[in-house]
Each structure stands twice: as C-alpha cells, then as structure tokens.
C-alpha cells in the first residue's frame, strides 16, 4: 500500500512538472518569435538611422563651409569699413566742422541784424501762454 501511495504521489508530481515545463516551452517559443520580429524590424531602422546620421554629417560639413565663408566676408567688410573710415573720416569731420563754423558765423550776423526786432516763437494753433499771463497778472495787481 505504501508503494502505491508513493507511486501516485510521484505521478502527480511528474504531471505538475510536465505542465510547468510545457508552459515554459510555450513561453520560450513566444519569446524567441518576439526577439526574431524585433530583430527583423530593428535592422532596417538601424540602417535608416545610419543613413540619417551620414546625411546630417554632410549637412554639417556644408554649414561649416558656409560659416567660414561668412566669417571671411565679415572680416573683409570690417577691414573695408576701417579703411573707409580712416580715409574719409578725418576730412569729412573737418568739412563738417567748417560748415558748422560758417553756419554759426552767418547766424551770428543775422542775430546782430535782428536785434532791432524781437524774435517771436510761433506755435501753430496756440498762443504762447507766458506772454499773456504776464500782461494779465500786471493788470490784476493794479
């Protein structure tokens, strides 16, 4: 009787182990299929990514060439600006100063001639309030 009991216990144990091994095998098959599918999809994606990186590298090289050309143009423009400023700057300042002196001298003569008649400030649409107030204030104080 003890032998039959041990045999039944071993049969139940082997059955549970067989079911567990069958489920494990099924899980391993599904995992293998999933890894194969991911590999099949990853290889083209990696190839596309590699092509995109190569294209970006080419564009970066082009932008670098353009940036160096722009830097050269900027330095040339700066040198030209400095040359023009040093060549024409001094004489232009002298001409402007001479013109200012002439205008000042001419306006000084006009002021001497205009000393006989008082200068008026005219604001379109408005009278100068200061002049009117002085007259009114004097009249009210008296």
Automatic annotation (TrEMBL):
InterPro entries per UniProt: UPF0478
Organism: Streptomyces griseomycini
Domain of life: Bacteria
Protein name stated in the entry: PurR-regulated permease PerM
Lineage of producing organism: Bacteria, Bacillati, Actinomycetota, Actinomycetes, Kitasatosporales
Pfam families: DUF948
């Amino acid at each position: 009787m003890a032998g039959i009991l041990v045999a039944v216990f071993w049969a139940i144990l082997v059955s549970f182990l067989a079911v567990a091994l069958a489920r494990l095998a099924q899980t391993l098959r599904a995992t293998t299929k999933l890894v194969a599918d991911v590999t099949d999809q990853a290889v083209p994606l990696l190839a596309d990514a590699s092509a995109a990186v190569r294209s970006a590298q080419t564009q970066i090289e082009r932008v670098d060439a353009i940036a160096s050309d722009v830097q050269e143009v900027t330095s040339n423009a700066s040198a030209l600006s400095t040359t023009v400023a040093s060549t024409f700057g001094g004489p232009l300042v002298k001409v402007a100063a001479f013109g200012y002196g002439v205008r000042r001298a001419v306006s000084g003569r006009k002021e001497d001639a205009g000393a006989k008649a008082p200068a008026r400030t005219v604001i379109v649409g408005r009278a100068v309030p200061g002049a009117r107030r002085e007259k009114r204030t004097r009249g009210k104080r008296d």
